Amino acid sequence: MGGEVPLLSALYKSPPGIIREIFLGGSFKAQMVIANRKEGDPLNEKRRVLSIDLETYSDVDLGSCGVYRYVEGDFHILLFAYAFDDEEVRVVDLACGEELPQEVRDAVFDESVIKAAWNAQFERTCLSQFFGTRLSPDSWQCSMVWAASLSLPLKLKTAAEVLKTGEQKDDAGERLIKYFSVPCRPTKSNGGRTRNLPEHAPEDWERFKSYCKQDVRTERDIRHKLEALPLKHSEWDFYHMDQRINDRGVLIDRTLVEQAITCDLMLSEEMTKKAYELTGLENPNSVSQLKGWLEERGIAIDSLGKKDVAAMIKEIDKNGLDQEALDMLKLRLQMAKSSVKKYQAADRYICNDGRAHGLFQFSGANRTQRWAGRGIQLQNLPQNHISTLDEARDLVKMGCFDMVESIYGNTPDILSQLIRTMLIAKPGHIFTIADFSAIEARVLAWLAGETWRLEAFQRGEDIYCASASQMFGVPVVKHGINGELRQKGKVAELACGYGGAAGALISMGALDMGLKESELPDIIDSWRTANPKIVQFWWDVERAAVDTIKDHQERKVGRVGFQFYANTLWIVLPSGRKLAYIKPRLQPNRFGRMAVTYEGLNAANKWARGETYSGKLVENITQATARDLLAEAMWRMEQVGLAIVGHVHDEVILEVPVGSITVDEVCAIMNRNPVWADGLPLSSAGYTGTHYFKD
């Protein structure tokens, strides 16, 4: 690391003021190590590469429990296929008693040798279990992450097809994995065994070995293709940081999880019984049966989704219609609120150390490469609103479910609000949580050069009030003068930044906020009039993308660059990272305008040609830049020894010794601008607690 960032590995043993001295006293260099690497750095030199693919067995389900829990079951590495650089691929049959060559063992622990694999977290975690020690991620490179950085598919087979590599993934693998790698059902014909071994199907075992070797060849072939488009050193740094966060995991309150699951089961039985008594249906949970029952009562409803049911409840209640139908729909909404799946996922993911690991996927979000959630899916947790959250939490943990119902009246909602609180700090530690404030709005204003917004952020103003004031030409103060306009400013801020129209306002809850549909066009016009530079930024970005596709010439729009090479449109972010739009074309859209289209993963996770437009391109750029800011803030935190156990959108969760650092000191680290973000008014806020919650 060149010693350019103070390394405080002994932070926890240091006095609390050490962070203040480093980050507030000015001795921390603004230039991060990752921003200072030059060509010729040792990481750019040719290093030996060990490509690896494993085939394994465990009685724990990998898909539902994750790899960290998977390796704690009845776990075995069956086959170890490998190749050094472009040498011949070999396979070690560990299941049949072969041993790893010493050269391979040495290379696994040699930090100068790159270990490469597709979804390398799997191989590294399995080998950590095999060797009995946690392997550092620092010399590992994940070809899946590399592909994801270029917006390529996360599946090896699909990525190989898209890249048209000479080596393709063997289709026979799924059948062989199902046969050898997962438990089998005991039958008379198989002698009652619960696992298939090599001797039970020798020919298939040989095919399995060939399949394992083929995966190494395919991954290596993809890697060679990707070498023409290298990943920034900083991205590998961030990936290794991500792996350390996943290795560290987060402690789960097992008692709360178990009691919440028990409570939900009891509730489900009770609510199903009530629904049966109300309707007399054979299965009141059946959508078709319930729709038919409602239609018999003169109530037609297209969908039984939460929003549709809630709207129908309001209509029936307002018009004084069928009371039984009203009660049943309320019950349906209550049943739909149940969030037991999150608790069940947590229960499956808890490892022997009481922590859930592997909850974050680096570059998991297509196009922007933001992190995605895995397992418990921390990226989409319900919010909590009740003021007595701790009291409700204690009641559920004690199993006082009747008291929860009598006090709060809606137990499923309480269980939902308590989901965040199942994440807890270990003894002697607390969570310190810091969150970027209005990060996308700040980044968008900075990218577009919307001066009044930047000045409002620098003054610490409420952006919803500031926006409403700019839109309507009058002062707007929350709970004060013209305070009623703040709501219009808020919904406009939420929906209009990326070119949204009336539909975007409605989806952001404009009608639920009490606004009338007839008001929405005027709100949109007012917001756009108040933000002319952002509106111009949309069109300038789209024009730059179109022109770059046409003439392949490099150009810039403010802080954002546009390039064309390797049959790909590249949008260069302020950080220097690039967003890839593969095989772009200009084609007429449904409005008759020429639009930018490109190949990528669609909503169904299929590789297909998709379309983008001005607002969507700006959204990609803004969210990707916000991701870069979060990544660098997390990197700075890690460099001073702060233990990150989670991050949700633009929020970081730290597990720190009690008294070691204050919220203000964490926010000071978070608010420091990277060298490429000069003039961006960053701000964050935070709080502490023994468990996670939304402040």
Structural class by helix and strand composition = alpha+beta
Strands of the widest sheet, in order across it, are 12-13-14-15-16-17
Largest sheet: 6 strands, antiparallel
Rg for CA atoms? 28 Å
Average pLDDT? 89
User: What distance separates the N and C termini?
Assistant: 36 Å
What keyword list fits this structure?
five-stranded mixed β-sheet, 695 residues, six-stranded antiparallel β-sheet, globular, single chain
Please describe what this structure looks like.
- With 695 residues, this protein is α+β, with helices and mostly antiparallel strands.
- It is 45% helix and 15% strand.
- The chain has 28 helices and 20 strands.
- Helix 6 (120-131) links the parallel strand 4 (114-117) and strand 5 (140-142).
- Helix 8 crosses helix 10 (202-226) and helix 14 runs antiparallel to helix 15.
- It starts with 16 loop residues before the first helix and ends in a 6-residue tail after the last strand.
